[in-house]
Amino acid sequence: MPVESIMGRGATRNHTPTRFNLKDRVQDGDWLDSVESLDGIVPRRTSVTVERPKTILTRNSSPDIGFDRSVNSYRGCEHGCIYCFARPTHAYHDLSPGVDFESRLFAKPDAAKLLHSALARPGYEVAPIALGTNTDPYQPIEEEWRITRSVLELLLETKHPFTITTKSDRVLRDLDILTAAARIGIAAVAISVTTLDPAIHRTLEPRAPAPRKRLAAIKALTDAGVPAYVSIAPVIPQITDHEMEAIVAAAAEAGARGGFFLPVRLPHEVAPLFRAWLDDHFPDRAGKVMTTIQSMRGGKDNDPGFFSRMRGKGPWGKLMEDRFGKATRRHGLVRAKFALRSDQFEPPQGAQLRLL
Q1: How far is the C-alpha of 176 from the C-alpha of 156, rounded, in Å?
Q2: From its phi and psi, is residue 212 left (phi > 0), alpha (psi between -120 and 50) or beta?
Q3: pLDDT tens digit string along 40-81?
Q4: d(CA 77, CA 113)
Q5: What are phi and psi for residue 220, nearest 5 degrees?
Q6: 182/237 Cα distance (integer angstroms)
Q7: Quick one: which of 323, 302, 169, 198 has its CA closest to 259?
Q8: Cα 60 from Cα 72, distance rounded (Å)
Q9: Which tens digit of pLDDT belongs to each residue from 81-117?
């Protein structure tokens, strides 16, 4: 039942997830079946639910990921990027990875408190904590909730290394913390820039800040002494791949130290959502886009295999790799490797946060 407007949203569908034996809604003769024709489409407003997890550090042992622990302050993301590989996580809540993912959000206000407990445990071994690995730590609701900032305050207090990945210039609101952390070598930031085209941006990632603002954020971070990198992730063939060299050039001009790219990934419910998005916004090339993606993914919409999922197979995968390598060499950028110090860590003292 289409009861929300897709204006300002990335997903054009809001199907009930089926991977967990949840049934799709069916028309049963109730008057609600005709709500759209009777009242028109009702705009979907963003809601935030408080989540109280018992732990906040997420561990992984994937051999193709450059970190083994992460913190996610939020579940769901209002940026609405249609390609977001985190969308399927909303199905765990019996919510749609479609419009629900970008409008029914969850906040974890106890994140810093839980992290305090984790860092204070005897025998804790230090390694960089990644922020922004699942959903963006600087999505719009961070302005009110300030959960990411509270986490950063703790990490600076304990001199614990961390990385941030975001597609928002809101990261500059914490420039005071980032500057202090960078000064002692424990912070690095990657800004995601997927396109420089405002028209593509408006449908691809409708509630994320404009590309020019993200490039300006790279410059501001660099000027403040914070190691800043560009993340061209994802690269979508036939939609954004032609911009790779231009994005590298723009990031280099903004002062980025290096960068990385990732071909688009379409796990689980992301694939049908992405297909629907193509049909609505790029019907002239939808088939060509999917054919190219499948050529990089072993004939399927998605390849979950280690390493290959991050690189892509076949001629298209190699072409992207060669183009990115050539562009970064031309502009003096390096592959993003965050060399952060872990030898200064001071475990938090006492049962309560000192800064909160």
Answers
A1: 11
A2: alpha
A3: 555 668 999 999 999 999 999 888 888 999 999 999 999 999
A4: 22
A5: -65, -40
A6: 35
A7: 323
A8: 13
A9: 999 999 999 988 889 999 999 999 999 999 999 999 9
Question: Which 8-state DSSP code applies to residue 51?
Answer: -
Reported as a pLDDT band with limits 50, 70 and 90, residue 199 is very high
* Contacts (Cβ under 8 Å, ≥6 apart) of 356: 112, 113, 150, 153, 154
Tokens of 51: 């989540």
Intra-chain end-to-end CA distance of the chain, in Å: 44
Helix-strand-coil split of the chain, %, nearest 5:
40, 15, 45
Which of residues 43 and 261 earns the better pLDDT score? 261
DSSP state for residue 154 in the 8-state scheme: H
Residue 240: CB atoms within 10 A of its CB come to 21
CA distances from 284 to 239, 278, 281 (A): 11, 9, 9
Q: Which residue type occupies 237?
A: P
pTM above 0.85, yes or no: yes
Q: In whole angstroms, what is the distance from residue 164 CA to residue 128 CA?
A: 10
DSSP 101: H
Domains of the chain: 48-335 (3.20.20.70)
β-bridge mates for residue 57, sequence order:
71
Please tell me the distance from the alpha carbon of residue 172 to that of residue 149, in angstroms, as a whole number: 11
Lowest-confidence region among 124-128, 292-296, 304-308, 324-328: 304-308
Rounded to whole angstroms, what are the CA distances from 3 to 79, 112, 283?
Answer: 20, 37, 24
* β-bridge mates for residue 60, sequence order: none
pLDDT band at 7 (very low <50, low <70, confident <90, very high): low
